[in-house]
Amino acid sequence: MSRSGTLQKLISEAAAGADDGEPCSVKLHDVPGGAAAFELAARFCYDVRAELDAGNVVALRCAAEHLGMTEDHGGEGNLVEQAEAFLRDVLGSWDDALRALRSCDGALLPLAEELLVVPRCIDALASKACADPTLFGWPMVEYYTARGLEETVMWNGIATAGKPRSPGPDWWYKQASSLKLPVYKRLITAMRSKGMSPENIAGSLTHYAKRHLSGLTRHSGYVGGGGASGTVLSDVEQRALLEEIVALLPVERGVATTRFLRGLLRTATILNAGAACRDALERMAGNQLEEAALEDLLIPNTGYAVETLYDVDCVQRMLEQFVAANTSAFAASPEITDEAQLVDGPSGELMPISTVAKLVDGYLAEVATDTNVKLSKFQSIAELVPDYARAIDDGIYRAIDIYLKVSKHSERQSLELDIFLWKKY
Hints:
Blueprint lengths: L4 H13 L16 H12 L11 H10 L12 H12 L3 H10 L5 H6 L2 H14 L10 H7 L5 E3 L2 E3 L12 H4 L4 H13 L4 H15 L1 H7 L14 H14 L9 H13 L4 H13 L6 H4 L14 H14 L1 H6 L10 E2 L4 E2 L1 H16 L7 H10 L9 H13 L3 H15 L1
Antiparallel strand pairs: 1-2, 3-4
Helix pairs in contact: 2-3, 3-4, 5-7, 7-10, 11-13, 12-14, 14-15, 15-17, 17-20, 19-21, 21-22
């Protein structure tokens, strides 16, 4: 009673209301951390040794607050003060801070938030992830030493250990992906505010999505998925998770790979994600369309009311985004007379627009086999590619030839396509 204001009050009230000689009984149903945390607090009261670690210090700190084990009841060295001191040490280590943050769950969360334990854990983790690992005194030194050592090499019977290797910028991705989404979002936000690069933010989000979105792994060829606990999320939960991840993705061009964006877009289509989510993905994928492969554009149509096998409207919108994002470059481009002029730089790589032109021609040849693709849609996609981007027209002629062979109205459409080609070329 001398060390807990809450127990002092409860026992005093119970004793005052009890008959003479009747034992005083107090029931505690709402101690944060439950019986285990209360036992640690009781051990402290009786000066009995207790094992504290990163996994139970938050529960003990919350229990101490709930039980009123402050300076007013225990003086200097009270349990609140002792738990705070241990918590500060815990926050000095990435692994311990992450473990402490994971323990802030369930019934413990409201008080852990009120005592600012959660934001302090998040801030500590964000600071460590943003720190330069090559600097002396790096706060992730325990990770660097334990996991960065090269394997021992035997030479002439002498064992030599290599120098520690500095981990890459993705060293924290896997552990951060074990956090639940609400806490993970706060961690990413804190890292962004501390100057984390968009590439690292996108890299972590990619890892998180691949770990938790089983739909992404099924339809995009990624390995993994299914959540930290091994449970598979429902379609509704996956849709909500996907929309949150897309909202967190940096908008800078190229920070997320085209393959990842394509995987998210396919999964968003299959899960029937919101329009804002799909628009954002189409915009980001469209901005870097020259990095896409043909299979990236073959997004299946879903639902019972669709007509075409592939989502040609989605590809058209991405192509429109690419053209809009490169309008100034197109306007400044000279007249192209041969394929050599479409080469960009000494590496001999094709200019982005010429790469996209080849991609579009291949896509049109693929969707041309679908008899439900309307002529107007076929033409509108073909016309989005600037005239100068095709130094050789073999690709578009091949696509048109395939389209005419499977067309339901070949005579009329042949005439219309002839007029289209005559006008364009």
